[in-house]
Amino acid sequence: MEIYDAYLFDLDGTLVDTAPDLMAGLNVCLAEHGYTEVDEELTRRWVGHGVARMIEQALAHQGREEPPAHLAKSMFDRFLEYYAAHIADESAPYPGVRESLASLGPRASLGVVTNKVSRLTTRLLDALDLASPFGIVVCGDTLDVFKPAADPALHACASLGVDPARTLFVGDSITDVQCARAAGCNVACVRYGYPGGIAPEDLGADRLIDSLANLV
Description:
Layout: E1 6-9, E2 16-17, H1 19-32, H2 40-46, H3 51-61, H4 69-85, E3 92-93, H5 97-104, E4 109-113, H6 118-127, E5 136-138, H7 151-160, E6 167-171, H8 174-183, E7 186-190, E8 207-209
Parallel strand pairs: 1-4, 1-6, 4-5, 6-7, 7-8
Antiparallel strand pairs: 2-3
């Protein structure tokens, strides 16, 4: 595989399997507001588009209408409160992630580009001792726009001082592919992760990988 000057990584579903703790937070806010809990398989389908959208999809799955604004905010706030306190109870890096980052770091610049908000991203990376390899972390609230817009990837490349054309974006979803394409980066998608119900082969990536070890 070609060696790049920089590698940008999605977080949830690419570096870290966060679905168990996301499901726990989702179920707390659902149950406390009188809704039915959901399982992890369903949660995995809804990750990647923000908390509000995940709650909305959970309610739609149950045939429930979107709640009034005050209730939606209450559910949103309760999710964030619980999830922040339990962000790494069961979440863990995927096999090969730590080793691959350690191998890539000395020869390329590394960054994270995620739609997760900054305070949760920082808390998760710190809890799992994953922050040190990355020269830049771009979160969902770093800029005025987020993935699939090109801006987060372009901002990461500019911060690292690298050409997007010499950068590989590694993700797991169509959101990542669209962001990478718009920024002029090549893109690889992992076969695991949270592709949102789309087969990995249909995401439109330049290549599919079974593990980050395939990048080394």
